[in-house]
Amino acid sequence: MEYTDSMLMKLTAKGDDEAYSLLVQRHYQAIFGAAVKMLKDRYLAEEITQKVFLQAYRAAGRYEPRAKLRTWLYTILRRLVFNQFRKKEIQSSPLVTENGEDRDITTYQSTTSPLDHLMKQEQMEWIEKSIDGLPPRQKMAVILKSYEDLSYEEIARILGVSVPATKSLLFRARETLREAFRKWEQNLTTKD
Fold first, then answer.
1. pLDDT > 90: what percent of the chain?
2. pLDDT single digits (tens) 25-50
3. Which stretches make up the RNA polymerase sigma factor 70 region 4 type domain (predicted)?
4. Measured between alpha carbons, how far is 5 from 67 in angstroms, rounded to an integer?
């Protein structure tokens, strides 16, 4: 029998550690991935992700399935990430793999020329830098929409704002990113 998230939360509330473990397995990668994208620090993202699941465990008895469990977990993540931003403990740093090397931003097919690969990599770095420069709510909205493919309704619930406010946040973020991309393109043409 396949347990739903709601069933697993009820079992977790009764002290069933196997149910809790299954919940963590189901949702860990999505929450951790969003945390890494927001924080740009794998170790801090790991710590925050663990806090998300610890808070979920502690609140299992009070959980009301009004939305998807993952939406609720993203809401916890948002609060913890925004608290980090408020503490100003986040420093911009490149993403680093576990072996200490900068991560490759994207994977390319072998038919891509080295110049195309370099251009694409530079473009992706510029986009990531631009996303990093967005205000926290806009950054979170962009990550949840673009990387996690959540609906406007889910993002609104996570951010604690209305759907129109969510659309407005995303519109302003896209405008900022468009302008950043124009500057990147201009920068390219002036290099030539």
1. 29
2. 999 999 999 999 888 889 999 999 99
3. 125-177
4. 11
Q: What CATH number was assigned to the domain covering residues 1-91?
A: 1.10.1740.10
Could you tell me which residues are beta bridge partners of residue 96? Answer: 102
Closest CA to 39 of 161, 143, 146: 143
Domain with CATH 1.10.1740.10 in the chain: 1-91
Q: Which amino acid is at 104?
A: D
Dihedrals phi, psi of 160, to nearest 5 degrees: 75, 35
The alpha-helical segments, DSSP class H, found in 59-110 are 69-87
Compute the chain's Rg from CA coordinates.
Answer: 19
Tokens 């393109």 -> residue: 185
Residue type, 88: K
Q: What size, in residues, is the chain?
A: 192
CA–CA separation, 124 and 120 (whole Å) = 6
pTM of the shown model: 0.61
pLDDT at 90: 45
Query: Could you give the residue ranges of the DSSP H alpha helices within 63-162?
Result: 69-87, 114-132, 136-142, 152-159
Confidence of residue 118 (pLDDT cuts 50, 70, 90): low
The matching CATH number, chosen from 2.60.200.30, 3.60.40.10, 1.10.10.10, 1.10.1670.10, for 109-192 is 1.10.10.10
